[in-house]
Design brief:
Structural class: mainly alpha
Largest sheet: 2 strands, antiparallel
Shape: globular
Strand content: under 5%
Order of helices and strands: HEEHHHHHHHHHHH
Oligomer: single chain
Radius of gyration: 19 Å
Number of helices: 12
Number of strands: 2
Helix content: 55-70%
Strand order of the largest sheet: 1-2
Number of domains: 1
Distance between the termini: 52 Å
Length: 245
């Protein structure tokens, strides 16, 4: 067994191929990461998009842990459904936490797991796009972690939130997992290129693509500093909770 190094935690392939006591647990880890990235603060640094793309490539191996299914399409479809459900539950938890915590989060001190500036940036993103932010946020790292929490804080209508939650979760899961599965097959059949041998490059490309919108937004808008985040928390105290979206 190869020795463990903490940098492996940044590699989605590590989670997918993870074994405990010789038992493959990749499918369970993938579902938990999807839940954590959308429902827990600890999830903002997890490899969401690249994880789902690679999950599509390894869909057969992942689903074999749960069911013995013949046919690539069924494996990919069921995996997409499971991931979407994990994302839906994660967003529901984030919404519940935001609704219960109210403005407490704006008073919370920064830590390794929590950065107030991300909360403020997500709030601005939500104000700009409204309910559609739930859909857009699914495809944006960091933002997707805080969007459901913001929705809870501003008391977005629950039925409206669930509609956007379900749509965004299935769009995100189906798009990335199916893309990973069928692009892998396409490159293997047409060019005899095994994408599994280029995982590092795939991860870098996906990270770059998903990060560009955040960089553009940061360049166009003002940079949120720690001091500004503190001022935002004071403003939040004065205005209390925003009206329902």
């Amino acid at each position: 067994m190869d020795s463990f190094h903490w940098t492996q935690l940044l590699n989605p392939e590590f989670y997918i191929n993870l074994h405990l006591g010789g038992v493959p647990v990749g499918i369970y880890v993938v579902l938990f990461i999807v839940f954590a990235e959308t429902g827990l603060f600890a999830g903002f640094f997890l490899p969401g998009d690249s994880l789902l793309f690679l999950a599509g490539i390894y869909s057969g191996e992942l689903m074999a842990t749960l069911f013995s299914i013949e046919g690539g399409f069924l494996n990919v479809l069921l995996l997409s459904v499971l991931v979407a459900l994990a994302g839906i539950i994660g967003n529901m938890f984030g919404y519940w936490f935001g609704a219960r915590s109210g403005t407490y989060l704006y008073q919370k001190e920064d830590s390794f797991w929590f950065k107030k500036k991300y909360l403020v940036q997500s709030h601005e993103f939500f104000e700009k796009h409204g309910g559609r932010a739930i859909i857009f946020a699914r495809f944006l790292p960091v933002i997707r972690t805080f969007a459901p929490i913001i929705a809870g804080i501003v008391q977005m209508d629950k039925k409206k939130f669930m509609l956007y939650n379900v749509i965004s979760s299935f769009l995100w899961a189906v798009t990335l997992i199916f893309a990973g599965h069928y692009l892998y097959g396409f490159f293997l059949d047409k060019f005899n290129i095994d994408l599994k041998s280029y995982i590092e490059y795939i991860i870098l490309i996906i990270v770059a693509v998903t990060t560009v919108p955040l960089l553009i937004n940061a360049l166009k808008g003002k940079k949120i500093t720690e001091e500004e985040a503190r001022r935002e928390s004071n403003d939040s105290d004065d205005s209390n909770i925003m009206p329902p979206v």
